[in-house]
Amino acid sequence: MRAFRSLTLLPTLQTSRRAGGNSVEVILTGGTLRKNSFSLVGPLAEETLRRLSADLLFLAVDGFDVRYGLTTPNLLESRVNVRWRKPRGAPLLYVTRASSVDAACR
Fold this sequence. Notes:
Radius of gyration: 14 Å
Order of helices and strands: EHEEEHEEEHE
Number of helices: 3
Shape: globular
Oligomer: single chain
């Protein structure tokens, strides 16, 4: 992160503790904390994301299936992920474990 003159992150709560720095601004979306993933979900998080745009987005997901697309076992988290799926013209990179990807994608 030191190569950036300024950087704004919208991380999970867990990542936000390590992300702060002189040139790093951390924005939390608000919402309800999912204890197992430390992500923020719910209507408040969704509304915050509706109002933001990104130059580059890395979206961590639980899995990916050829027929169904992005997957997560949590309904509230899936609604937040959908808000990120339409960043105004920004490149979008999905991040998941290789074991979470449908065999047809490999």
